[in-house]
Structure formats: C-alpha cells, structure tokens
Amino acid sequence: MSEIETITMTMREVDRLKVVEAVVDGRLMTWRAAERLGMSRRQVERLANRYRAEGDAGLISKRRHRPSNHQLPDDTICRALASRVRGAANGSLMRFSCTRKSSRLTIRHFHSRSGRISASHC
C-alpha cells in the first residue's frame, strides 16, 4: 500500500503548479507560462524540471520556515531596544536579557529601583 503525503501550498504556489503542469503536458508554451507567472522563460524551465524530478513538492518554496535575509541579529535588536528604554526611563539603570523563540524576541527588564522584573515581546 502506498503512503499518502500531505503538502501545504499557498494559492500562489497552486497557480504556479497548474501552469507548470500545463507546460510539462505540452498544453502551454514556456514563454506564455513565463508571461502568466511574471517570471523569465528560463525560470519556468527550471520549475518544470524540478516538477518532473520531485512532483508537486518541487514547486514549494525552498525558503519556507527559514529566516529572512534582512533579519537583524538578536544582539543588535537588544542593544537598540535597551538604549531606547534607557532613554525613556530618564537614565534609570536597567539590565536586559533577550531571547528569541519562534521568531518572537522576549526582553526581560530588571528595574534597579523597584527590583521587579518585567517581560515584553517584539
């Protein structure tokens, strides 16, 4: 018995799948598919080759579940937030610890005057 594999696709990926299937089946020319998808003819050929090799899963974005190239390092975010809060606290001393969990940054503040700890999420 064969196993059924479940994949999740965005609507954009589903549209891309239909167009690439038409290219692979010979119902649509590569240049026409490129016009419909808003990409180059060469990129459509790459997608068609990946579809032939991997099937539907080959058209899913390889960037999914990966951090953005434009994401700032945690220490940079912590330093910026610490300086902002320090300025807002009128010079009172605070200590910070930052942790990133599932793309949310948690900042723990230790207020030196009151001795209490608070946490905020970004």
Span from first to last CA? 47 Å
Q: Are there runs of 5+ residues with pLDDT below 50, and where?
A: none
- Helical region count? 4
Global geometry? elongated
Outline the biggest β-sheet.
3 strands, antiparallel
Q: How much is the average pLDDT?
A: 75
Number of strands: 3
Look at the helices and sheets and give the structural class: alpha+beta
Order of helices and strands: HHHHEEE
Q: What Rg, in angstroms, do the CA atoms define?
A: 24 Å
What is the share of helical residues?
A: 40-55%
β-strand percent reads 15-25%
Side by side, the strands of the main sheet go: 1-2-3
Task: Describe the overall structure.
It is built from 4 helices and 3 strands. It is of the alpha+beta class and 122 residues long. 7% of the residues are buried. The mean pLDDT is 75.
Question: How would you summarize what this structure contains?
Answer:
This protein has 122 residues and is of the alpha+beta class. The protein has helices spanning 11-25, 30-37, 41-54, 74-88, and strands at residues 94-101, 104-111, 117-121. The two termini are 47 Å apart.
Task: List the main descriptive attributes of the protein structure presented here.
3 strands, alpha+beta, 122 residues
